[in-house]
Design a protein that fits this description.
heterodimer, A: mainly beta, 3 helices, B: 347 residues, Methylamine Dehydrogenase, Chain H, four-stranded antiparallel beta sheet
């Protein structure tokens, strides 16, 4: 269980506590994560422990709002009041949002083979790409070069046919490292729920909701000399899902197949004050939606060739310059496009970072992207951090950002609008952090204004078309609390997060628009989460609960979905002796602990209390 | 630490109280539906996959609108995607497309009398007799035969494609087969297809005029063919005139006729009016849509008032614009989500 990720997490926080995070270490390749924004920006590290998919990771680490259509079904994220396509997802430095839809389905975004993950909010997201008007999520694989022969096996079995297996084999020495991963997840999701659409609400069984996903990953790292490293990362995911209907609607047996292949070949090199990284990636995504009743068999395939060159130059320990050049070539085929569509996206990014003697540090950066047939603005960003009295920290950042229209927005036939402008945003935030050995507290308040917000509207031609419809103003407060404590022999940690978001439509092209000055749909004003972990000898307990305030589901704010606060509890036992070489752990998890009856998306049922048993085996040679 | 324990206790406390609202809830709580007077039923489609279809009722005497009437009267959601409403023997037949059903309500109180289920993707209902009705369908490749007395599906007529609006004239049922370029003729006593009339691409709506001509409006599909307004001689089932729209990208819909059965109305962005004796299409609109994208059209048969529906952005309550027969604006009604269908009840 003490996997790489946890270690990373612990290191991160201990650095935070001692306030040493920005002092430049001797430049060592292993510790340079070229994709991480400089420390002047707010970043939330995400633990992937006990989680299989990105929605679980976010649910267990943050209070961001997750819009879930049901167990195993589509899940999208809303960061800081933004919509699902305004959050960028990056895999080892490459953006992997669907170029056609613009968003990601977190339920099939596997994290089983990911080493570390983090969430960049607001301005911080401009570091790696445009488009993260809400933020960006970074998924990374990395290694250190120690001698190891390590086998991890994880098996989870639970209610409604939950059957998850993960196998990871790590082999390596001081020159070579190999990481092989395999993961298989499946569930029938045939839970019983109450159908409230009936005159007399009755208990019925969910049908056509089964899910199966296979993932295979292979990463190879090679360090021929102390100052350079090669890596090859390959990942393939194949998922097959049935899509359930809403309550009270008989199923058409809808099915969705998703295949994805990701690869990245990278070379890192440092000499003197220079650090270079060159990475090339090939990406393939295939989506097939099948509804035999409606005679729909729609296929979308996307191929992308991506590359970047990133470099850092250290003037001295306190001053650095960063450059990145990106190029993406994307080809998409869809039954809804007139032939194959192509887009090139090239980007230049320059960042200057300086740490001053008096605890002040700052970053200024500028990004410019060149996208086929789309005029996009320059993206500047600035961040300032002030450390004072060792434990206190003030953070300020601001940026301009944009999100280019998706392939569907531009090329959908009929209705695609080639004249769409990118969504344009400005954003700023001020935060305060307090961190001591046992206690971390943070508060951030932010503001953003986005114009040219894209929304699809019907046209008089009998089809829908996207337009740059509205201007959205968002403001919010984020609170976080982390407390470590010891009560006799029990070690504990407590994490709490609270988000308050006001996201309102300010102006639109529609006359007499009832949505003006109303909260956006599916954006809760209040969300919170707590997580308590207790460790006593070989037993650990994790209690977790989230609160999701009510959301409006119509733009005039007349209909809402009530709040819900599902909780879960997990107890784990280490079966081996303490400090043994091999580690065996047995866990039991109870989800929806209080058997809460709730829906996230209107009339999409979710299960009541359900269980799973988890076995983790770790062998070291 | 004390604070954090307090937070935990607070959350635990909240979980202990079983509130329980589950599913979509209305801010305004219970709507009302009481007043006497002649009424217009406004069918509101609701969002696909959300089960928020609704009925708005407009009272022409009191000028009041009651929204969400079905839900309020039956304490039950209507279902997913309202496609159409029609009257038969004093009852209102509400076709709820994605819920695969036709809900039958009493027009005096809008309470459910029965529900016809087992349909695939129903579009329009036509009552034929006490024991027979037809329901057209988007995907089933059949027209369902149902019994309005027992609310059972009792049979089917095989067709080749998507069938849309239908009407009965002198024992024959005329069906716009939208997936093709044909109007089907069905003998309602034998349920046999006796003829098919070739019109334009994608026939979507039809009416019969004062001289027993059948008028069929074809949208032409999306840039597939020129839209057309076709006139059919019912006795010979032959097309006697076909008026073509100039612009292939036009998508005319919702063909209606006034109470004299002499004036045709349809939507083509704006509202157009057309005399049945005209030999060419009217190039100028009767009522401008302004900024709206009109999604439904109705002509009140009792006073020839014109009703148009605007779904706005499809995620906020829609609007209905009311005009008198001369096209003068009367008022604007706030109705349910995605209004698109009108049925006029006699007082």
């Amino acid at each position: 269980m003490r996997n790489w990720c946890t270690i990373y997490f612990v290191i991160f926080f201990s650095l935070m506590v001692t306030g040493q995070i920005d002092t430049l270490p001797e430049v060592e390749i292993e510790v340079v994560n070229i994709n991480a924004p400089s420390a002047t920006f707010k970043t939330i590290e995400l633990s992937t422990e006990n989680s299989n998919t990105l929605n679980q990771v976010l649910e267990r680490n943050t209070a961001v709002y997750l819009k879930s259509y049901g167990l195993g079904n589509l899940v999208t994220v809303s960061v800081r009041g933004s919509n699902a396509s305004q959050t960028q997802l990056l895999w080892n430095g490459f953006t992997i949002n669907s170029p056609t839809l613009g968003q990601n389905d977190l339920a099939i975004s596997s994290t089983a083979l990911i080493d570390n993950a983090s969430l960049q909010l607001g301005a911080a997201s401009t570091n790696n790409s445009s488009g993260g008007l809400g933020g960006a999520i970074l998924l990374e694989n990395s290694t250190d070069f120690i001698k190891r022969t390590e086998l991890d096996i994880l098996k989870e079995n639970g209610s409604f046919g939950i059957d998850n297996s993960t196998l990871k084999l790590k082999l390596g020495n001081n020159k070579w490292q190999s990481f092989t991963g395999f993961s298989k997840k499946e569930a029938k999701n045939n839970f019983i729920y109450t159908d409230f659409l009936q005159k007399e609400p009755k208990r019925v069984q969910q049908v056509n909701a089964a899910f199966e996903q296979l993932e295979l990953g292979q990463n190879i790292y090679f360090k021929p000399t102390e100052n350079q490293q090669f890596s090859l990362k390959l990942n393939g995911v194949k998922s097959d899902r049935q899509l359930p209907s809403i309550m009270g609607v008989q199923t058409n047996g809808e099915q969705q197949l998703d295949d994805s292949f990701k690869s990245a070949l990278a070379w890192s090199y440092n000499k003197g004050n220079y650090f270079h990284q060159l990475s090339l990636g090939y990406f393939y995504d295939f989506l097939n939606y099948i509804d035999t009743t409606a005679n729909i068999d729609s296929k979308v395939s996307v191929r992308a060739l991506k590359g970047y060159y990133k470099a850092k130059y250290y003037f001295n320990n306190n001053t650095q310059l960063r450059l990145s050049l990106n190029t993406d070539k994307i080809w998409a085929n869809s039954s809804n496009f007139d032939g194959q569509k192509y887009q090139a996206r090239d980007a230049v990014f320059i960042e200057y970072y300086q740490q001053l003697k008096n605890g002040l540090s700052y970053t200024t950066s500028i990004r410019k992207e060149f996208i086929t047939d789309i005029v996009s603005p320059v993206v500047p960003a600035v961040a300032v951090k002030y450390d004072f009295y060792k434990k206190h920290q003030l953070l300020f950042s601001a940026a301009r950002n944009f999100r280019a229209p998706t392939f569907n927005d531009l090329f959908w036939s009929p209705g695609g609008n080639p004249n769409l402008q990118p969504e344009n945003g400005i954003m700023g935030e001020i935060g305060y952090n307090y961190s001591s050995r046992a206690y971390n507290f943070g508060i951030t308040t932010y503001y953003s204004f986005i114009n040219n917000w894209i929304q699809w509207l019907p046209s008089d031609k009998g089809y829908w078309s996207p337009v740059n419809l509205k201007e959205v103003e968002t403001m919010g407060v984020e609170l976080s609390l982390e407390k470590k404590f010891t009560i006799k022999k029990v070690q504990g940690s407590l994490n709490g997060n609270y988000n308050w978001v006001i996201a309102k439509n300010r102006t639109t092209l529609i006359s007499e628009d009832a949505s003006i000055d109303k909260q956006l749909i599916y954006v809760p004003k209040n969300t919170a989460s707590i997580r308590l972990r207790l460790d006593y000898k070989s037993v650990n307990l994790i209690y977790q609960q989230s609160y999701n305030g009510s959301v409006f589901i119509d733009a005039a704010n007349e209909v809402y979905m009530p709040n819900y606060m599902p909780a879960s509890i997990q107890v784990g036992w280490e079966l081996n002796k303490l400090k043994a070489k091999n580690n065996y752990q047995l866990g039991v998890r109870i989800n929806n602990l209080y058997n809460e009856e709730y829906q996230v998306v209107a009339n999409r049922p979710l299960p009541g209390r359900y269980f799973s048993i988890i076995l983790k085996l770790k062998f070291n040679k | 630490m004390r604070l954090t324990i307090y937070i935990i206790l607070l959350l635990l406390f909240f979980s202990a109280c079983k509130k329980k609202e589950v599913g979509p809830q209305r801010v305004d709580g219970i709507a009302y539906f009481k007043e006497a007077g002649s009424k217009v039923v406004i069918g509101c489609e609701g969002n696909f996959g959300t089960a928020n279809a609704s009925l708005s009722i407009y009272n022409t005497e009191t000028n009041l609108v009651s929204n969400n009437v079905f839900n309020t009267q039956n304490n039950l959601p209507l279902g997913d995607v309202l496609q159409s409403t029609s009257l038969f023997n004093g009852d209102l037949y509400i076709v709820v497309n994605n819920s695969n059903k036709v809900v039958v309500v009493d027009t005096s109180n809008f309470k459910v009398k029965g529900t016809i289920t087992g349909l695939t993707s129903p579009r329009y209902f036509l009552g034929i007799s006490e024991s027979k009705g037809y329901v057209t369908d988007l995907f089933a490749n059949e027209i369902s035969i149902v019994n309005p007395s027992t609310f059972q599906k009792i049979g089917a007529i095989s067709v080749s494609s998507w069938t849309e609006e239908l009407l009965m004239n002198n024992g024959n049922v005329y069906v716009a087969q939208k997936g093709t370029n044909q109007v089907l003729v069905i003998d309602s006593s034998t349920d046999e297809i006796t003829d098919s009339i070739t019109v334009g691409r994608e026939p979507n709506s039809l009416v019969v005029d004062a001289f027993n001509n059948l008028w069929v409006l074809c949208s032409g599909g999306i840039n597939e063919a020129q839209p057309s307004l076709n006139k059919i001689n019912i006795s010979s089932n032959s097309v006697t005139s076909s008026l073509l729209f100039n612009d292939i990208s036009d998508s005319p819909s919702s063909l209606r006729i006034d109470s004299s059965k002499q004036e045709l109305f349809y939507l083509n962005n704006d509202v157009f009016r057309q005399s049945i004796s005209a030999t060419s299409l009217n190039s100028s609109s009767y009522i401008s849509a302004g900024n709206s994208i009109l999604y439904g059209l109705g002509i009140n048969p009792f006073n020839n008032d014109i009703y148009t529906a605007d779904a706005i952005d499809y995620i906020q309550p829609g609007k209905v614009f009311r005009y008198d027969g001369a096209g003068n604006s009367l008022d604007t009604l706030s109705v349910g989500l995605i209004p698109q269908d009108f049925t006029f009840l006699e007082n």
